[in-house]
Amino acid sequence: MNVPEWMIRILYLTAARMDVPPLFGLTHVLLFFLCVGVPWVIAKQFASISNEAAVKQLVICGWILVLLECYKQLFLYVVVNAFHYNYWFFPFQLCSIAMYLCVLLPILKGSAKETVLTFLGSVSTPGAFLALLYPADMLRSYVSLTIHGFLWHAILMYIGYTVILHHRSTPGFRGFLKAAVLYLLLAGTAMILNVVFYPMATYGAKPNLFYLSPLVMSEQAVFHSIAMTLGIPAEHAIYIITYLLFCFAIHTAIARFQTKNITS
């Protein structure tokens, strides 16, 4: 890929280095509370706007994420990887999906739109929260990449909060089931991409989209041990079931929060 010289100069202007902040250190803790708390405060300020206006905000968030992703991909390609593409960073992780879904919202109707909104509130947001809680892949030696990672997940939290405050998450098991099916379809797509990209990934780490590659051992602490003991297929099954159970608990809590708001 040919990158214009002027763009390369701009990318290097944003390439300030720093010591990698430690997990659960002061920097991580401050960024965690900022990224979880500030989006809630902002979302509350817009809680009285119409549902149509709220959806427009989600679309704007989606396009902001597109711009942030373009910057990240260029920065990684030019500055970090010296004009090589690292498929580990292909933008199809769980926390990438909100970017695509928010941009698609204007063309979605009826049940499809409600399923996507439920996914954004009950499946995407828990993933963003967990990533902020354990941001091993977000605390980097480049200032801009670290800011990018936390800003990205703060936007995901804002998207989730907006869905919750505007009661756009379909309550009940049936509503969650549709979002869970969407997750499984995306997870299946990620598995296929992992296999397709594996022989193409000649630079950097092998792809592990959704952390569900059948060819790469999970690097997540607990699930790595499970994969070592029971094998990758069993680890994947446990990972998916555990995550969906966690998301269903969040979905149930959201429904209770929305019901309480309606009756109060």
Please give a structural write-up.
- By secondary structure, the chain is mostly helical.
- It has one domain.
- The chain is built from nine helices and no strands.
- α2 (26-45) runs parallel beside α6 (143-165), α5 (110-133) crosses α9 (232-263) and α8 packs across α9.
Blueprint (SSEs and pairs):
Elements: H1 5-13, H2 26-45, H3 51-80, H4 97-104, H5 110-133, H6 143-165, H7 172-197, H8 221-230, H9 232-263
Helix pairs in contact: 2-6, 3-4, 3-6, 5-6, 5-7, 5-9, 7-9, 8-9
Strand segment count: 0
Radius of gyration: 19 Å
- The proportion of strand residues reads under 5%
Shape: globular
The largest sheet, given as strand count, sense and whether it forms a barrel, is: none
Q: Could you say which structural class the secondary elements and strand pairing correspond to?
A: mainly alpha
Q: Helical residue percent?
A: 55-70%
Distance between the termini: 56 Å
Number of helices: 9
Low-pLDDT segments: none
Mean pLDDT: 95
| Count of domain modules | 1
Order of helices and strands: HHHHHHHHH
